[in-house]
């Protein structure tokens, strides 16, 4: 078995920084964690990528090409599709080792995850190569500290979950930047029964519209709450224990570190008991 985290989220939400932090955490705890850069427009990250999509295709290539003439967003989608068509390249560059643990640092265009099929195809490809995958969706916590924003972030997370159909973790990034008052406000949304607070949106303007809007938000909040649809875990890269907890949560989800032999033995023992 091989293991992967698909690190996704809006532009600037902290994906590349998260990857670097995980690699560093791996070094400190004597564990090999690799990163593959899948952002064809990446300008800066401070890890050493195992594979870099820019060696295959750069978004600039698609924009400057006489025939293609893409803008930055169309170009990006073209690049991911190009990667899929050249999946042999990715497979060869990646190599294959027992217990591979790879983070895929993805581009920041949210539509790649909410409704386009390119990422889904990539996931399928990775699964065919024996990867157990968890999608890790990062949202900048600074965009989550009032009711309306929290609701919108929650809906974005939900569309990604529904589209990718993968085991999934939502992280609130950049917790270190949150002021004490903002932290208190956030805590209200993170409490188990707090989604009703989402109806607590403050809006100026038309009173009747506001009343309806509030009711709608409240209903969506209840729906998410009742079905435990979306949960967020705060991520503070300045806190080693927090990083370690998050890694452990994800490891459990993708069943990393579970000894296959032990499980087989369990089954055998059961069989013997049955025979008796
Ligand atoms: N204070 C603080 N800053 C952070 C944290 N994570 C990321 N940043 C900063 O936020 C900016 C964006 O971070 P990146 O890691 O490049 O974000 P990204 O999601 O990879 O961005 P794109 O690849 O452009 O979509 C950088 O200036 C980071 O230094 C964090 O946990 N705390
Ligand atoms: Mg990045």
From TrEMBL:
It comes from the Eukaryota. GO terms for molecular function: GTP binding; GTPase activity. InterPro entries: Gpn, Gpn3, P-loop_NTPase. It holds the Pfam family ATP_bind_1. Binds to RNA polymerase II (RNAPII). Small GTPase required for proper localization of RNA polymerase II (RNAPII). May act at an RNAP assembly step prior to nuclear import. Small GTPase required for proper nuclear import of RNA polymerase II and III (RNAPII and RNAPIII). May act at an RNAP assembly step prior to nuclear import. This is GPN-loop GTPase 3. It comes from Brassicogethes aeneus.
